[in-house]
Write a structure and sequence with these properties.
Layout lengths: L43 E5 L2 E5 L6 E4 L10 E2 L2 H11 L18 H12 L4 E4 L6 H11 L8 E5 L5 H12 E2 L3 E2 L2 H9 L4 E5 L5 H10 L4 E6 L13 E4 L5 H12 L5 H14 L3 H19 L33 H5 L2 H6 L3 H12 L10 H6 L6 H7 L3 E4 L2 E4 L3 H7 L6 H17 L5 H6 L1 H11 L13 H15 L3 H18 L2 H17 L3 H17 L3 H18 L43 E3 L2 E3 L21 H29 L61 H4 L78 H4 L30
Parallel strand pairs: 1-8, 5-10, 5-11, 6-9, 9-10
Antiparallel strand pairs: 1-2, 2-3, 4-7, 12-13, 14-15
């Protein structure tokens, strides 16, 4: 059979296609594994909540707010005929071959009546029974009895590997007509709250709070839940009735075995069946399998000629010829051990195709591939008939719309060696599904119906992925790339997420960065649609980073659009780093460090206050270092400056120039109302106080009204009561604020002191120089007093060569000459005279 063109009965889609798809003739079955023409990208656009999602298998899905015109209308409920069609499609397909007579439901009448009675009252019931107890058969019978109890009829669901959210969406689609529309949580809750149906849910795998969430969301539904004893129980507040399904009694077990064999039992067979009932505790599945063993024994006793036309024993393995009877010999009954674990014995007497199908099912964790895939997997055009053999022997059981190995069968077959080549079987299945899911003729609905087997192959193969050569792609990555978009388009989003995570793991092991970026992008889109904004942000940022490293501009743009949508929904702004292939200006956020020898200034005569921290280019300029502070180490000149420091130096020079201008204008505005241009000093100073209300301007020094006080306080009186300067040119806290240690503690204004140059000073306080720094406050300046006989070593010579011993006649050496230069200012070696001042340039009052 062609896996892409099953019969009209598959999934209930007869008559959907107007004409069968034409395929070129095939030389052999294996030639169909390759694509004869490039496949078109299967792009699907759907609505998820208030998002418009475009599933793009090539570059990644795109998501945007759904425009009002694209929003679907309120979904309408399906008609009764449409619900019947969906229910028929949800059942497992009928195996090919001779029709099997259904076995009767024995010794279950009491449980059946009790379940129907509780459901008719609107109560939810949980039917608990071990695997193989006939729970599924009883649920089907009760569902038929309750067909007319609810306005929306009976809805059949399967909980195998399904969460509560998955089941709510399955219930929504079983009742409503909403193609390509996945409602968000609020809309989903509103829609399922209006559903009134009897929901038959088999293979439930959760309980507790998750089950309470499912029941609370559907108050108008009555649930008939089927679960095994190991499933967590419902909470006490759930209000669910509990019904336990026991095993059959001895008489019912023998009766079931007679129906399975199709004849009466002999005395030996009845005794053998009695021992089996005691060992199996009356599980119906064991007697179905025991009936298959007796049927095979009857065929062996009849001889090969009786069944040769069917070819059943034509391909019996040489090591299994011991089961064939010799002429005149009686075939013995299976031992009790073989009857307790009958899977290996039953499988040994099946066809080669059936045994190969079992090997694939064991390798896939119990998932049996659909019968349409068996010819391609097994390599036999008639391998689809193997499913009928397995179902007749009780080796497989129905699970929703597909088949799984029956309870206990996988462990029995693994012990018999059916899992010895499991890795090879998984690789073959993955290669086949990678081709099939990526074929454009396969619809997303069909891929979703085969989701369990596809995910099993992908999950098992992903950890086995190894690094591949450049230009190649691993099988697991290829399968994830083709299956994940189909799951998304088919609205099977739990399978979509599982496929993406398995693909991301395989791409990481294979070293395929481009595929890692794709899977992270899709995981981010999935999380965004699910409302998980934090996880969406993390996945999308990882994808953008990987695609930026690959210079994938289209993928980067798609990722950033999705990130912008995440930021809009979360209200948190995003900070994206530049990626490769983008030219963005360099942005530096660290503070600019000053050059080692100071900043070249545009106006050398302008100086900054030494005792205040001035902010230049967002850098706080420290006070001038004192002898207790080591001077800055000389640098290597402008050639050693980095570009960043040059920028900082220029900014500092510009700021100082502007500051000088502001100081000058401030000085002129405080003198008189004359013309400002006539009162601007020749050499304005910025070294005076900044918080005395004068904005650092030079005070007027005229004879009328001049108090002789500078912006900064003059030097305190010395021990002899006169005002002057100490031998130490650096002002300290003790010399500027503290009184002398004289015994009297008083000052003598009539006495005189000598300056460092040896010239006496008068009793009148000297006029401060423009370069004299303001006296620091003791709370801010904690520099210890330095003896006067320990002068500070200047960093650069303050006098020209040859004039070290003789000071210039016009100016004296200021304190700033002997202090090291700060990182942002250059000290002037000479003090400029004040315009209009009372002193002369060579007067001792101007020397500090």
């Amino acid at each position: 059979m062609d896996p892409n063109n099953p019969g009209p009965e598959e999934y209930g889609h007869e008559g959907d296609n107007p004409a069968p798809r034409q395929r070129p003739p095939r030389e052999s079955l294996t030639s169909d594994f390759g694509q004869h023409a490039p496949a078109l990208a299967r792009t699907v656009q759907l609505v998820s909540g208030d998002f418009l999602l475009t599933v793009n298998p090539v570059d990644g899905s795109e998501i945007e707010p759904c425009p009002p015109a694209e929003r679907p209308a309120r979904p309408a409920k399906l008609t009764e005929a449409e619900r019947a069609e969906i229910e028929r499609a949800a059942r497992p397909p009928v195996p090919p071959g001779p029709a099997q007579l259904p076995l009767p439901l024995l010794a279950r009448q009491d449980e059946r009546e009790k379940l129907v009675r509780l459901l008719a009252r609107g109560r939810s019931v949980r039917l608990t029974g071990p695997a193989g107890s006939g729970r599924t058969r009883l649920l089907d019978t009760v569902a038929e009895d309750c067909a007319d109890l609810a306005p929306d009829g009976v809805v059949r669901l399967n909980g195998h590997r399904r969460s509560a959210d998955d089941l709510l969406h399955d219930l929504f689609y079983a009742v409503h007509d909403a193609p390509l529309h996945r409602p968000d949580r609020d809309e989903l809750t509103d829609r399922v709250r209006e559903i009134g149906a009897v929901v038959v849910l088999d293979d439930l795998e959760f309980g507790g709070a998750a089950l309470d969430e499912l029941l609370d969301a559907t108050p108008e539904c009555a649930f008939l839940l089927g679960a095994t004893p190991d499933v967590p129980e419902p909470s006490a507040s759930a209000g669910i009735e509990e019904v336990t399904l026991p095993g059959l009694d001895r008489a019912a077990s023998l009766d079931l075995l007679r129906h399975a064999v199709g004849r009466d039992l002999t005395e030996d067979e009845s005794n053998w069946a009695g021992d089996l009932w005691f060992e199996s505790e009356g599980l119906p599945l064991r007697f179905v399998q025991a009936g298959a063993l007796l049927r095979q024994r009857d065929r062996l006793r009849a001889g090969a000629d009786a069944v040769d036309e069917f070819g059943v024993f034509e391909d019996v393995r040489p090591d299994e010829t011991s089961y064939a009877p010799a002429d005149g010999d009686e075939v013995p009954l299976p031992s009790l051990g073989e009857a307790a674990a009958p899977a290996p014995l039953l499988a040994s007497r099946l066809s080669v195709a059936a045994r190969a199908t079992l090997r694939f099912a064991v390798a896939l964790g119990g998932e049996v591939p659909h019968q349409a895939h068996l010819p391609a997997l097994v390599g036999d055009t008639h391998a689809d008939a193997a499913l009928g053999e397995l179902a007749a022997c009780g080796l497989v059981s129905a699970a929703g719309s597909r088949y799984r190995l029956a309870a206990g069968v996988p462990a029995q077959l693994e012990a018999a060696g059916y899992a010895d080549e499991a890795e090879e079987q998984v690789r073959e299945a993955a290669q086949h599904y990678a081709w099939w899911t990526g074929h454009p003729s396969v619809t997303p609905e069909r891929v979703c119906a085969e989701a369990d087997a596809v995910l099993a192959a992908l999950t098992l193969l992903s950890p086995l992925t190894t690094a591949v050569a450049e230009g190649e792609q691993s099988t697991a990555v290829r399968l994830a790339r083709t299956a994940a978009p189909a799951f998304a388009a088919g609205l099977h989003w739990s399978a979509w997420e599982k496929a993406l995570r398995a693909g991301a793991e395989a791409a990481l092991l294979a070293g395929d960065v481009a595929e890692q970026a794709y899977f992270h992008h899709e995981l981010g889109i999935h999380a965004l649609c699910a409302g998980q904004l934090d996880r969406a942000r993390a996945e999308l940022e990882a994808s953008v980073g990987l695609r930026g490293a690959l210079a994938d501009k289209r993928g980067t743009v798609a990722g950033r659009r999705a990130l912008a949508l995440v930021a809009d929904r979360s209200g948190t702004p995003l900070t994206l780093m530049p990626t490769a292939g983008e030219e963005v200006p360099e942005a530096r956020y660290e503070e600019s460090a000053p050059p080692p020898r100071g900043v070249p200034m545009a106006f050398p005569d302008l100086q900054l206050p030494s005792d205040t921290g001035l902010v230049v280019n967002r850098t706080v300029v420290p006070p001038r270092p004192t002898p207790s502070t080591p001077p800055a180490k000389p640098g290597g000149g402008l050639k050693g400056l980095a570009k960043r420091n040059l920028v900082a130096a220029g900014a500092g020079a510009l700021l100082v120039a502007v500051l000088g201008t502001v100081v000058t204008l401030g000085a002129t505005s405080e003198n008189d109302a004359g013309t400002p241009s006539e009162n601007v000093g020749v050499n304005p100073s910025a070294s005076q106080g900044v918080d005395d209300g004068s904005l650092g301007a030079d005070p007027a020094t005229g004879d009328e009204g001049d108090t002789g006080e500078a912006t900064s306080r003059p030097t305190d009186p010395g021990p002899d009561g006169t005002v002057g300067t100490s031998d130490d040119p650096t002002p300290t806290a003790s010399s500027s604020k503290e009184p002398s240690d004289d015994e009297s503690g008083t000052t003598k204004p009539d006495e005189q002191s000598e300056t460092p140059g040896g010239k006496p000073t008068g009793s009148k306080p000297p006029e401060p120089s423009e370069s004299e720094p303001s006296s620091p406050d003791p709370s801010d300046e904690e520099t210890p007093e330095v003896p006067s006989d320990q002068p500070s070593t200047p960093e650069t010579p303050t006098t020209p060569p040859g004039e070290e011993d003789t000071p210039p006649p016009s100016t004296g050496t200021s304190a700033s000459d002997s202090a090291p230069s700060t990182p942002v200012e250059t000290q002037s070696s000479q003090s400029a005279p004040q315009s209009g001042g009372a002193g002369t340039p060579d007067s001792p009052e101007q020397v500090i």
